[in-house]
Amino acid sequence: MTDFSPFYDVNLSYDDNYAKGPFGAFATALAGDGVDAADCVKDTPAASTTFLGHRVNLPFGIPAGPLLNSRFTTAAFRMGFDLVTYKTVRSRAWGCNPFPNVLAVHPKSVDGSLTPGSAELDEGVLADTRYEQPISISNSFGVPSRDPDEWQPDMRRAIAAAGEGQLLIPSFQGSRVGGMTTDDYIADHVTTARLVVETGADLMVMNTSCPNEGHNRLLCHDPALVGRITEAVKNEIGDRALAIKLAYIPPTEVSGGWGPDRQIVDDSALELMVRETAARGTVQAFSAINTISARLVDASGQQALPGAGRDRSGVCGRAIRHAGLDMVARLAAIREKLGLDYTIIGLGGVVTPEDYVAYRASGADAVMSATGAMWDADLAHKIKATVH
Ligand SMILES: Cc1cc2nc3c(=O)[nH]c(=O)nc-3n(C[C@H](O)[C@H](O)[C@H](O)COP(=O)(O)O)c2cc1C
C-alpha cells in the first residue's frame, strides 16, 4: 500500500464507507467546520468558464462513483473540485456486490495501458492489493443505491454545499428488474429523473454504461433505445441539461491500430449514438468514458474477485487513459462534422495535471477524475496551480 489514504477506503465495505467516510484529506476538509468552500478555491481566479449554463471556476471534477453521499461531495468541493458528481442513484434501494469492490490492476504493457479490443482483456489482467502510482484499479460495485427517501434529502444537502463557481451534478440510471418490458424500463428512467429533479437539481448525468437485458451488452450499445430513453427523460426534465455517460465505443473501421498513424476510417457506431440523442436535442453533453471490462486474475491465474459473474470487472485509472482520450477526440470530430454544440466531459485515467491538459487539447470542455482523485486528494489544487 502507498502511504496516503484514499477518501474512499478500499479496505472497507461500501456500507462502512457510506457510514464512516470520507477518509484522509477529505475527512480533514469536512471536519473544518466553518470552512467556507470559497476559501478552498482561493487559488482560483473568479468563476471563469461556463459549463452547461453554469459559471465554474475550473471545469474539473469527480465523476459518478467514489462520492457516495453529501459528506463526500461537500469534502470534494472544499478540496477545490468544482464539478462534483453524486454517485449514481436509482428509483429503489439496490444492494452492493460483495466485498472486495476494488483491486489494483497491473496491465502488461510498459506504460500500463489496456487497449480496447486486445486479447489481454479476455486472457486476464493481474489484479491484487498492490496499489501503485500511476494508479489503475478495477471497481465492482453493481451500482448500489439507497432508497429515494434517503438519497433525496441527502442530494438536496449536497447541492446546497456547492461554493461559488462550483456545481453538484447528480447521476442516475434505470433499473432492470425481472418481468419488466422495455416500456417499463424506459419509465423507470423517467421516474428516477423526476426524483432527481425534486431535489432541486438543475442538470443531471444518466449512466448508459450499465448492462442491458438478455445480452452481455451495455445499454449504450443500443443507440436506438438510448434515443427513446433520453427523449422520455428530456420530456420529464424540461430545460434542465441532460448528459449521458458512455462506455468506450470502438470505431467501426480504423487503420494504423493504436500507433501514431491511427486513422478513423468509419466512426458510424459512435455517430449513430450522437444522431439518436444530441442531434435530436435530447442530450446536451456526453461524459466519456466509463470503465473498460477485463477478465481479472490473481498471480496464479485464478479469478481474482470472489463469486459468480465476477470473472470480469471494469478497469479504470491510468490503464484507460488512451481509450478515454480517443473517445473524446472522436466525439469532438463528430461534433464538428455534424455542426452540433454538445458539451464533452472527458475522463478516464486522469491522474496528473498533464492528463487534464491532454483531455482539453483533445476537445473536452470539462475533465473529471475518479481513480486519480481517490489516490490524490490534492489533484484539483495541483491542476489549478499548473493551468493558471
Ligand atoms: C469507486 C468507483 C465507483 C464508480 N461508480 C460509478 C457509478 O456509480 N456510476 C457511473 O456512471 N460510473 C461509476 N464509476 C466510473 C467512473 O465514473 C469513471 O467513468 C471511471 O472510473 C473512469 O474514470 P477514472 O479512470 O478517472 O477512474 C465508478 C468508478 C469508481 C473508481
From TrEMBL:
Which parts form a coiled-coil structure per UniProt? none
**What keywords is this UniProt entry annotated with?**
Flavoprotein, FMN, Oxidoreductase, Pyrimidine biosynthesis
Tell me the cofactors it needs. FMN
| Lineage: superkingdom | Bacteria
Q: Which residues form the Dihydroorotate dehydrogenase catalytic domain?
A: 49-385
Biological process per Gene Ontology, one example term = 'de novo' pyrimidine nucleobase biosynthetic process
Where does it sit, as one GO cellular component term? Answer: cytoplasm
**SUPFAM superfamilies according to UniProt:** FMN-linked oxidoreductases
Q: In which pathway does it act?
A: Pyrimidine metabolism; UMP biosynthesis via de novo pathway
InterPro entries attached here?
Answer: Aldolase_TIM, DHO_dehydrogenase, Dihydroorotate_DH_cat
GO MF assignments: dihydroorotate dehydrogenase activity
Q: What is this protein called?
A: Diguanylate cyclase
Source organism (scientific name) = Bifidobacterium hapali
